[in-house]
Write a structure and sequence with these properties.
Layout (H helix, E strand, L loop, with lengths): L2 H51 L13 E4 H5 L3 H10 L5 H11 L10 H20 L2 E3 L19 H22 L3 H18 L4 H25 L2 H16 L4 H17 L5 H6 L2 H9 L12 H19 L7 H16 L4 H6 L4 H31 L21 E5 L5 E5 L23 E3 L2
Parallel strand pairs: 1-2
Antiparallel strand pairs: 3-4, 4-5
């Protein structure tokens, strides 16, 4: 080989080597920047986790003489019994379960309540009464283990919510028996305590707690409406005050989103945090990070370390942008959700796409329903009280919340019904579409109408 050819080969090799080195340096620089962004995201997770665990739940008490202190002090000691009793309950066949639900909702007479549900009420009645009384506290705050960032090894995680939902169903059965016996005011007290408990399930417990809170309203809505139909004027007056306080204390969905923005990354990407960050986390959040699911989407991509760091950053960015929109009217929020869903579908990161994000349209629709149920119950109390005082239905619905603003109050209208009845129905068009996103076992939205009888 000539000197000229050798020189050319050396020049080419030098250029190739320099190019490869440049690419490696650029890749190292990009990874270093990604590492720094990941570190910053981890620091933000730590700070938010500590802030969330320090939040004190301040909400109005629904009774005039509440027990001092937080709910955790009165409900916490009952949790072992609640968990044991709910765990021991036999699983009902679906036809039996449906028949029990129909009786709760007033679609079937009490005489048709299956024996299994009667027996469950008999077993759980004393503990149910103690649980309802436990809700009458000055402050909210669920017992340890209910928090979105609670230790996943504690028995209250998930099972605690299921246990309390079981006792809310027992409360609905008990109200049906009380109404049958002509004890409408007593049934109304049970209603208000149950709604207060459902409200408190949504404080600090993340999206799972927010949905459990909404489910509690669905369980109690029909028996509460029937209790209001037959309550005394004094009972209606008490209920009006309590319903306003409970509605004021409902936790906005953005609060649950804030907790989810921390829980989700800790569960999926906790292994990306360094030891210093892990040590700085509250104990429950640290346990979530250490036991997290990490990446479970089939075969791990070859660039998984890079993809997971990018997915962590993108997940937190998406959740932060979504938080203010979940508390806005449907037209505003759904337009934004649609845009973000398209952005998610176009993401080049398979981990971010496969991990996905919550179905915010469905979640916000369920919370819309909960607010509508709360507002309809208050409206029913007001029109019944007006008729008791004046002997006639009001020409227009009295102001629901004249003293304090509440988040997204439902626009309601009064419509004359048959045989002198009055129908209170949501006016907002989007409420008529909620049934499309509800679970199959949840009542249709048109059943949110309540009819006030003379």
């Amino acid at each position: 080989m000539s000197d000229t050819a050798t020189s050319k080969a050396q020049t080419i090799l030098t250029i190739v080597a320099a190019s490869v080195l440049l690419l490696l340096l650029m890749a190292a620089g990009a990874f270093w920047r990604l590492h720094q962004r990941t570190r910053k995201a981890g620091d933000e997770l730590v700070a938010e986790a500590r802030a969330l665990m320090a939040i004190r739940v301040v909400r109005p008490a629904h009774t005039d003489a509440p027990t001092p202190g937080p709910l955790s002090q009165t409900l916490g000691p009952l949790m072992p019994e609640l968990l044991l009793l709910q765990k021991a309950e036999p699983r009902l066949e679906e036809p039996v379960n449906e028949q029990c639900q129909d009786v709760r909702d007033g679609k079937r007479p009490l005489a048709e309540l299956p024996e299994a549900c009667r027996e469950a009420l008999e077993r759980g009645r004393p503990l149910m009464q103690r649980t309802l009384r436990a809700t009458r506290t000055e402050e909210g705050g669920l017992p340890e283990g209910f928090e979105a960032l609670g230790d996943p090894n504690l028995p209250h995680q998930m099972k605690g919510i299921l246990a309390l939902q079981h006792f809310l169903k027992l409360t609905a059965f008990e109200m049906r028996f009380q109404l049958e016996d002509g004890q409408a005011d007593t049934a109304l007290e049970h209603c208000l305590d149950g709604l207060a408990l459902s409200r408190d399930l949504g404080h600090g417990s993340g999206l799972i707690g927010a949905m459990a809170s909404a489910t509690g309203y669905t369980i109690l809505f029909r028996p509460c409406a029937d209790a209001l139909q037959h309550a005394s004027p004094a009972g209606l007056k008490q209920a009006t005050v309590a319903l306003r306080r409970i509605r004021e204390g409902l936790s906005p969905l953005s609060s649950a989103m804030r907790a989810e923005r921390v829980y989700g990354p800790l569960d999926a990407f906790g292994h990306l945090l360094d030891q210093e960050q892990l040590d700085a986390l509250p104990a429950g959040a640290r346990a979530i990070a250490k036991q997290g699911s990490a990446y479970q989407g089939g075969d791990v991509p070859i660039f998984a370390p890079v993809l997971m760091r990018h997915a962590l950053i993108e997940f937190m960015r998406y959740q932060e942008k979504a938080m203010p929109f979940v508390d806005r009217p449907i037209a505003e929020r759904n337009a934004w959700f649609d845009g973000m869903e398209r952005e998610l579908e176009q993401s080049w990161n398979p981990i971010f796409k496969m991990g996905g994000v919550p179905d915010f349209s469905r979640l916000t629709a369920r919370v819309d329903r909960q607010r509508a149920q709360a507002d309809l119950l208050l409206a029913l109390a007001l029109v019944k009280a007006h008729r008791a005082e004046s002997g006639s239905w009001p020409a227009a619905l009295p102001a629901l919340y004249p003293e304090r603003e509440v988040l997204l109050p439902t626009v309601l209208t009064l419509q004359p019904g048959e045989t002198g009845t009055l129908v209170v129905v949501p006016e907002e068009a989007h409420l008529q579409q909620l049934s499309a996103v509800m679970d199959p076992d949840v009542a249709r939205l048109q059943e949110l109408m309540v009819t006030a009888t003379p």
